[in-house]
Design brief:
- The complex is a heterodimer of chains A (204) and B (852).
- By secondary structure, chain A is an alpha+beta fold.
- Chain A has two domains: 51 residues, no CATH class; 102 residues, 2-Layer Sandwich (Alpha-Beta Plaits), CATH 3.30.70.
- In chain A, 27% of the residues lie in helices and 26% in strands.
- In chain A, strands 1-7-8 form a three-stranded antiparallel β-sheet. A three-stranded antiparallel β-sheet of chain A has the order 3-4-6. Chain A has a two-stranded antiparallel sheet with strand order 2-5.
- Chain A starts with a helix and ends with a helix.
- The relative contact order of chain A is 0.17.
- In chain B, the strands form eight sheets. In chain B, strands 15-14-25-24-23-16-17 form a seven-stranded mixed β-sheet, with helices on one face. In chain B, strands 28-32-29-31-30-33 form a six-stranded mixed barrel. Chain B has a five-stranded mixed β-sheet with strand order 2-1-5-3-4, with helices on both faces.
- In chain B, 30% of the residues lie in helices and 18% in strands.
- Chain B is an alpha/beta fold and 852 residues long.
- The chains are: A alpha+beta (204), B alpha/beta (852).
- At the A-B interface, helix 4 and strand 3 of A face loops of B.
- The structure holds iron/sulfur cluster (5 copies) and FE2/S2 (inorganic) cluster (FES).
- The site of one iron/sulfur cluster (SF4) has 14 residues of chain A, from helix 5.
- The site of FE2/S2 (inorganic) cluster has 12 residues of chain B, from loops.
Chain lengths: 204, 852
């Protein structure tokens, strides 16, 4: 390879030969390259500084961790019909109904047990489609890394908690975040009030 | 020969009997017409109009479920008009339907859902407000919850309650869209709680309360089994979710009982979920039970059984075990332990049982209830069939309705079936014998020539009907009327119950009546109605001291009575009790306790800690129905297969495994605990079971001509008729049967009779929380007239006192029972009725005081 290049140089004119020597002497190409690096060093970065400084908030249509929802009066929407269980291709949802006439749910039939095993879930969203009351929805949570698989089974109590992402926050944005490592585990604390930009636009 | 009619269905010619419904004719031709309100066995109403068909030449569509065929009719079941009409009928039904499928317990197995899915219009045009009968579902009984907003007004619930159960406690209230099928003022039902209304309701109006909101049908795993609570032997499926049995159902077209179950069968399944089950072998050490290993337990059993003198050893196995278990049990006792002392019950005398088997022809093969119901006259006696065998009662009611036949009942207490009977008589308890004798005498009076040679006629021909009528407490006119009906019939069926066994009364009369009817040329069928699910199987398997498997003659041993006698005398070395509660049920509790306490070693093998188990030295945990496979022979001789759904709890094992391990530990290699292998052996050993086996084994045994739906009749066998008969005669006629009225007893003026309660069977069903919810506290049943006389209202507390015992009960009133008869079921441990009984005395006398 190198030999052939030298061959080519040989047939060039004297002028070009001198330029070639100067270039080599003053590291011109190298400096050009460094200039590009320098330019990127000085320009605004595209790397998401997740989890230490930033976090991406998915679109509303995102299919993340399940949520169980309530109606406007705060009653559980789930009537434990088990249709989501039936629809699920990986059989990762368990629902056991029970009766509760205290008005906790929209009907007297409520879920005594509602749990989903996220290790098996393929986030297809069939459960959401099957639900007659829009009780189960796939939410915007995606941080599921864990050391212990048992924490991948989420039960009704957890699923009924309001989602971390405020419902009025549109997706596709980046917010400020900080990474916390404690004895109890690791956590990304997002500050949804500090928008750091639209992800799509940032991609140019 | 029936007249036949030929018609065309969708162009296909088909010939059917005159009077056939178009629906059935179409089925015959191979076309299925959807139906809602139609149900076999129920009267037709034609209210839902789903089954509309087009008949050539008729402008309007006709409901095929109530329209009979006509000659040369041409019917279309799938024309465009029919399809459109079907869809609009569904749209109409949905216009006032709650459509809350996600909440409804019927969702997933709802006939309306299925129908709309298949034929529905997929849209509705009804824009008005729907009628809402109520906001919340309401409870109708401890087992029924109701939602009327989903009703499609098919009236199946009302009809089944009227026509089959015979209760008529629900009806249609209101009109049009406001019509609701419910009880009077939606009040709590006081009914059979059999849940037939639930089973037939096509939608989710009538629902099981215990099953409420526990599962969807697709969560359930089921197994076919046979109800353990009486010898009607209803086929059913039990279904579990996550190891808990959540319901028992009888499906249409499955089992000879089709959809029918009584409260015990439908709701008594939860004994399987009970936390009180025995889970490990328990050894009594210094008065209290300590868990031990199976090895240790079997060692002890082997040691005690082999050391025992075979004369002083005995075994009593419950007639709830399977055929296989019973067979192996008698084999263990007879061949391995050389001991002939075995029995299948503690409640009645083995000789009376032998006589009953002979007189009722049990050793001669089976007969179906449906065949019996084809007779001109059906004579039911010796038990309160409506309470003892509820589904037998349902079938008698619905098959006798609308047929030219007579049902005659003779019993000590009033019963629901009375309303279907042409004649019902109440006789003095323990005096069924004189009544039967009087009937025979009355027949004799008109046909002396034909009856004079009948064996045993001499014993009655010199008494008079009036005299016998005085003894049995039935008016002479009624006796003559019964005789008249029997004389006029060309075929007669006798349904005979366990009072013959309990009271040893009427056995020789039964034989006499049988022979007399035979001599008069009647076509005669006899069906026993028994209270333990496999009582007939137990006898067939030879669990009886006087005969072996297939009623073969064996060296006679002792029955339970005899064993207790021996124990009370010079003591017994060992007693093996399987699933029977001798202390709780032996008709003289004090004697039973005393005798058992003198037995040197008692091993009890049971599912629950019974009162007998408390007295045992060793308790072995056994599997229940639902946890084992095998065969059960019902009272008709129908051999049905049962299968296991669950694993036995803890270390419990099936009775078959336990018996086999005991056998093998005593005589290595002598026994196998595999039900199929044992059944093979039964077929070889018990000739009459060959036909039961030849009919295949997948699920239910395949049917034969004699059996209407499924199962198999045990055909012909008993080569020992003569010997059996001799034993019957030897069993003897108890004093008094010959004719006198029991002497009056002014201190204790009432007769106490016992038996099973409608909601209970033996002691087992008292472990069912659901059944206990139907009847919590011990009750005494008194007649309406006595209640009036003593000023007792339903539910009042009363004290019942006999010569040696008294207890408090709440009173239930049964209208129509004789004034001097009170009834206490044998099911209550809290107030064990056998404390009132004394050996040798058949019907105890009691008095009643009202507690204010
Ligand atoms: S998203 Fe799909 S796989 Fe996951 S629970 Fe729902 S249906 Fe099952
Ligand atoms: S989440 Fe929806 S589909 Fe699942 S059980 Fe509840 S109501 Fe039914
Ligand atoms: S449970 Fe039986 S008796 Fe009671 S209402 Fe229903 S069908 Fe009638
Ligand atoms: S309650 Fe059920 S069975 Fe009764 S009429 Fe209504 S839909 Fe039919
Ligand atoms: S108790 Fe008798 S009648 Fe009732 S369901 Fe069981 S077998 Fe049938
Ligand atoms: S099934 Fe014929 S009208 Fe209802």
């Amino acid at each position: 390879m190198r030999d052939s290049r030298i061959e080519t140089v040989k047939v060039k004119s004297l002028e070009s030969g001198v330029r070639w020597i100067l270039k080599r002497t003053f590291f011109v190409d190298f400096i050009k390259g460094l200039m590009v690096t320098l330019g990127y060093n000085l320009s605004k970065g595209v790397t998401l500084r997740y989890p230490d400084e930033e976090k991406w908030i998915p679109y509303r249509r995102f299919r993340g961790v399940h949520t169980l929802n309530r109606d406007l009066d705060g009653r559980e929407l789930c009537v434990a019909c088990e249709l989501c269980v039936k629809a699920c291709p990986t059989r990762c949802i368990t629902v056991v109904p029970m009766e509760d006439s205290t008005g906790k749910g929209i009907s007297d039939r409520v879920a005594g047990v509602w749990k989903v095993d996220l290790v098996r879930c393929l986030f297809c969203g069939y459960c959401e489609d099957a639900c007659p009351t829009t009780a189960v929805r796939l939410g915007r949570g995606y941080e599921r890394a864990c050391f212990d698989l048992s924490s991948a089974v989420l039960d009704k109590e957890k699923l009924l908690l309001p989602e971390e992402v405020p419902p009025d926050l549109d997706g596709g944005v980046i917010v400020a975040a900080s990474f916390e490592r404690t004895g109890a585990g690791m956590k990304v604390n997002a500050d949804f009030t500090k928008l750091k930009g639209d992800w799509l636009k940032m991609q140019g | 020969m029936d007249k036949m009619v030929t018609l065309k269905v969708n162009g296909k010619e088909v010939t059917v009997k005159e009077g056939t419904l178009i629906l059935d004719a179409a089925k015959e031709a191979g076309y299925h017409i959807p139906t809602f309100c139609y149900q076999e066995n129920l009267s037709g109403v034609g209210s839902c109009r789903i089954c509309l068909v087009e008949i050539e030449g008729q402008k309007k569509l006709q409901p095929s479920c109530v329209t009979p065929v006509m000659p040369d009719m041409s019917v279309k079941t799938d024309s465009a008009t029919v399809v459109a009409a079907r869809a609009s009928m569904l749209e109409f039904l949905l216009s006032n339907h709650a459509l809350d499928c996600p909440v409804c317990d019927k969702g997933g197995e709802c006939e309306l859902q299925d129908m709309v899915y298949k034929f529905g219009p997929r849209k509705g045009r009804f824009g008005e407000e729907k009628v809402r009968h109520h906001e919340k579902d309401y409870i109708l009984s401890p087992v029924i919850i109701k939602n009327s907003n989903r009703c499609v007004s098919c009236m199946r619930c009302v009809r089944v309650c009227n026509e089959i159960v015979g209760r008529a406690v629900i009806g249609a209230v209101g009109r049009g869209a406001h019509q609701e099928m419910t009880s009077f003022l939606r009040s709590r039902l006081d009914c059979d709680h059999d849940g037939m209304c639930i089973e037939v309701c096509p939608v989710g109006c009538f629902m099981r309360l215990p099953y409420r909101y526990t599962a969807r049908t697709w969560d359930l795993k089921g197994a076919k089994t046979v109800c353990p609570y009486c010898a009607t032997g209803c086929a059913m499926a039990i279904e579990e979710r996550d190891g808990t049995v959540v319901r028992a159902i009888a499906r249409l077209g499955e089992g000879w009982n089709d959809r029918l179950l009584c409260a015990r069968g439908r709701f008594g399944y939860d004994v399987l979920n009970s936390a009180e089950r025995i889970k490990t072998p328990l050894l009594k050490v210094r008065g209290s039970f300590k868990p031990v290993s199976w090895d240790k337990a079997l060692d002890i059993v082997r040691d005690r059984f082999t050391k025992a003198d075979p004369q002083k050893l005995g075994g009593v196995a419950s007639a709830r075990l399977t055929d296989e278990e019973l067979y192996l049990f008698q084999k263990l006792m007879r061949s391995v332990l050389n001991c002939g002392n075995i029995d299948s019950t503690s409640r009645w005398d083995d000789r009376a049982a032998a006589a009953f088997i002979s007189e009722a022809g049990i050793n001669a093969g089976g007969v179906t209830l449906y065949d019996c119901m084809n007779a001109d006259t059906v004579f039911v006696m010796g038990g309160t069939i409506s309470d003892e065998n509820p589904v037998t009662d349902y079938i008698i009611r619905c098959t006798s309705a609308g047929r030219f036949m007579n049902v005659i009942i003779a019993s000590t207490r009033a019963m629901k079936l009375d309303s279907s009977a042409l004649l019902s008589v109440r006789h003095t308890p323990g005096r069924l014998g004189p009544l039967i004798n009087a009937v025979v005498l009355s027949l004799y009076g008109d046909s002396r020539e034909r009856l004079k040679g009948v064996e045993g006629i001499a014993a009655v021909k010199d008494s008079s009907v009036d005299e016998l009528s005085g003894a049995c407490g039935v008016q002479a006119a009624a006796i003559k009327a019964i005789a008249g009906k029997l004389r006029a019939a060309s075929s007669v069926s006798l349904l005979v119950g366990t009072d013959f066994l309990r009271l040893k009364d009427g056995l020789s009369g039964l034989g006499l009546l049988k022979r007399a009817l035979g001599a008069l040329g009647k076509e005669l069928k006899i069906l026993p109605f028994l209270d333990r699910t496999n009582q007939r199987g137990a006898w067939d398997m030879g669990v009886h001291p006087l005969f072996g498997p297939g009623y073969r003659e064996v060296e006679a041993g002792l029955g339970c009575h005899g064993m207790l006698d021996r124990a009370a005398g010079d003591g017994m070395d060992a007693l093996y009790v399987i699933g029977t509660d001798i202390v709780g049920l032996y008709p003289d509790r004090g004697f039973a306790e005393d005798a058992l306490s003198k037995i040197r070693f008692i091993v009890v093998q049971d599912t629950f800690m019974t009162e007998t188990a408390e007295m045992a030295d060793l308790v072995l945990p056994a599997a229940s129905f639902g946890e084992k496979a095998g065969h059960i022979t019902n009272q008709e001789g129908r051999v049905q297969k049962i299968s296991a759904l669950l694993k036995p709890p803890g270390e419990a094992k099936t009775d078959l495994e336990i018996i086999a391990s005991i056998g093998s530990s005593i005589s290595p290699g002598s026994m196998e605990g595999d039900p199929d292998a044992v059944f093979e052996e039964i077929i070889k050993e018990v000739e009459i079971y060959a036909s039961a086996a030849s009919s295949g084994e997948a699920g239910w045994l395949a049917g034969e001509a004699a059996a209407p739906v499924c199962g198999v009749m045990v055909k012909k066998g008993g080569s020992l008729r003569e010997a059996m008969h001799r034993k019957a005669v030897e069993a003897g006629v108890p004093a008094g049967e010959a004719g006198s009225k029991p002497a009056a007893d002014p201190d204790y003026p009432y007769y106490l009779v016992t038996g099973n309660h409608l909601f209970h069977s033996g002691r087992l069903s008292r472990r069912s929380g659901i059944l206990k919810g139907l009847l919590m506290d011990p009750a005494v049943e008194i007649s309406g007239s006595l209640a009036e006389e003593l000023g007792i209202a339903d539910g009042d507390r009363v004290e019942v006192r006999g010569r040696g015992y008294g207890a408090r009960f709440f009173a239930r009133i049964r209208k129509g029972s004789p004034r001097d008869v009170v009834f206490i079921a044998e099911n209550f441990c809290e107030a064990s009725v056998n404390r009132f009984f004394r050996r040798g005395e058949t019907v105890p006398r009691v008095n009643i005081t009202v507690l204010k």
